[in-house]
Specification:
With about 230 residues, this protein is mainly α. It has twelve helices and no strands. Helices cover about 70% and strands about 0% of the residues. The structure holds protoporphyrin IX containing FE.
């Protein structure tokens, strides 16, 4: 009776990377979701300017992320994840023009559009680590794009309801080339699970993903502090 049990222990299939990522980052996800800025934004106690400031930060972050990713499109492990259907920079630039006007790029350059320190730190990390670590980049790819295809869609619905922001200013949350997020996310998880990574690579991806949530949470903390300082 005991032989099959021993055998099943010895041959136990390791958890799939998609599952490991989800469980390894579950606490960090809750912390990000529960951060004051996100909770207030979702609860309707902020205003359209708060959402616009979040979009401003997102532009700086995605410019750094997508610039770093563009250098790795041919990488055998990371390359297949990089998909123009996910790209957010053009959508964010359209949102910038909608909210700030045609000269938004000048406003960003001279500081009229405020970028908080945590955003700059996040963008710097993406530029520096993105050059040398595909595990780092995959972790950030997962946290940002899977998040945008999940909670991002909920955030869009809520801010539209609370603050009456027009669709033309919420391109960031729309994926016109991805008809249904669910099958896309299923395909993404399958790619995570079928791509061959060493155990050391997987461990690095898990740790970088948890760290990515922290870098994102730090942006929410700074946005909350900036609002309170301005009030
Ligand atoms: C109000 C804030 C948020 C809400 C309501 C929310 C909600 C959700 C929901 C419902 C899912 C599950 C989707 C599914 O299994 O198909 C999800 C997944 C996810 N979210 Fe969030 N989220 C929020 C904030 C964030 C933030 C700030 C990040 C990262 C910066 C993030 C990253 C992710 C990721 C990476 C997943 C995919 C987990 C997986 O299946 O592996 N979320 N979110």
């Amino acid at each position: 009776m005991s032989a099959p049990a021993v055998e099943s222990v010895l041959t136990e299939t390791p958890a799939a990377l998609s599952q490991e990522l989800k469980s390894h980052t579950a606490a960090a996800h809750m912390a990000a979701e529960d951060s004051t800025f996100v909770a207030d934004l979702m609860g309707g106690t902020l205003d359209a300017a708060a959402l616009v400031s979040l979009l401003d930060q997102s532009l700086v972050i995605y410019r750094a992320l997508e610039t770093a990713l563009a250098a790795h499109t041919g990488h055998p492990q990371l390359g297949p994840f990089i998909d123009s259907k996910l790209a957010r920079v053009a959508a964010l630039e359209a949102d910038m023009a909608h909210h700030h006007g045609a000269d938004w790029e000048a406003q960003l350059a001279d500081g009229r559009i405020v970028i908080v320190p945590a955003t700059l730190a996040y963008a710097e990390a993406l530029a520096a680590m993105g050059r040398e670590s595909i595990e780092f980049l995959l972790a950030h790819h997962y946290v940002r794009y899977m998040g945008d295809l999940s909670g991002g869609l909920i955030i869009a619905r809520m801010v539209q309801r609370h603050y009456g922001i027009a669709d033309e200013g919420l391109n960031f949350y729309a994926f016109p080339e991805i008809e249904k997020p669910k099958p896309y996310k299923d395909g993404y998880r399958e790619l995570l699970d079928t791509t061959k990574f060493s155990r050391a690579q997987k461990d690095a991806i898990l740790d970088f993903a948890a760290e990515s949530f922290e870098l994102n949470r730090a942006v929410f903390v700074d946005l909350d502090a900036a609002r309170k300082a301005a009030a």
